[in-house]
Amino acid sequence: MYTLYWLEHGEIWTTETAHRGKISVTILLIGMVSSFLIMSYFAARQKQ
Questions:
Q1: Which is nearest to 31 in space by CA: 48, 13, 6?
Q2: pLDDT 10s digit of each residue in the chain, 48 long?
Q3: How many domains does the chain have?
Q4: Is there a contact between 4 and 24 (Cβ–Cβ < 8 Å)?
Q5: First to last CA, the chain
Q6: d(CA 45, CA 41)
Q7: CA 7 to chain centre
Q8: 37 FRET partner, CA 20 to 30 A, in 8, 26, 30, 47?
């Protein structure tokens, strides 16, 4: 989410950016997957 905010605030990300929707979904998906993997890693370590 911060990445999307930073792109918008820095005026790098405009409404005319090509494939804006696809890139937004990709950024959010990467964030969700990485968050899941990190949480899974720490949960597995805690069980040991």
A1: 6
A2: 888 888 888 888 888 889 989 999 999 999 999 999 999 999 999 987
A3: 1
A4: yes
A5: 32
A6: 6
A7: 12
A8: 8
Cα 41 to Cα 44: distance, rounded to the nearest angstrom: 5
3-class secondary structure for 2-47? HHHHHHHHCCCCCCCCCCHHHHHHHHHHHHHHHHHHHHHHHHHHHH
Tokens representing 36 are 């899941």
The whole-model pTM stands at 0.75
Q: Are 31 and 1 in contact (CB under 8 A)?
A: yes
Contact (CB, 8 A) for 27 and 4: yes
